[in-house]
Amino acid sequence: MKIIVLAIAAALALPSTASAREFCGKLENHYGPYDYRTEKGKLPIVDGAHFTEEVEAGIRGATDELGGDLDYTLRAFPNHHRALATLSRVALRDKVVMIPKTKWPVECYFLRAQRLAPNDAVVYNLYGAYLSSKGQRDEALAQYKEAIRFDPDNAMFNYNIGLAYLKKNDYEKALYHAHKAYDQRYPLPGLKNQLIKAGKWKDKPAEETPAENKPVEETPAG
Questions:
Q1: What is the residue-wise DSSP string for 173-219?
Q2: Where is the stretch described as Disordered (predicted)?
């Protein structure tokens, strides 16, 4: 098992995605693969049997060991947001890169999700959070950038990428994304507090409409 994991990790590190795809398996599945965002009608048959509340909480499996049910769910719906979140959370909790009874390391499931749905911003954000928790700052930032590219105004994505820039001491970008997150009333104060602690927080200047851009009142005809 250890040798297999190391081989896959090496493939994932390669610039080309061809080797990663070879190790991470084909997407074709006996049920699916389906896009989690657009094929909700097919979800109940999978979630009802394999992604129960206890599976999502990372407590125990439903029809198999926990990893077996997560694997089934993510083969049917590779970009199943909640299942990906559980997968990464359990792996971090148990300090493993590959959960028992899954077919691939955690990163493979994110790569498979991106292959199925390359414009799914949530997948990039979840992957970034997983990599950040492992201390892979540059890799996490790259994923967050993709999430922002597909959903630039998302408050959570802006908050997360703001934290990523803060860890790299890029305060200007961290502040920019903090403002975007808090403009939408993002509830967590951590990013702002850390910028304050670093002496880099600045309130966003009030935006005023230039006189030349203000709507011109039309004179009624007649």
A1: HHHHHHHHHHHTT----HHHHHHHHTT---PPPPP---GGGSPPPPP
A2: 199-222
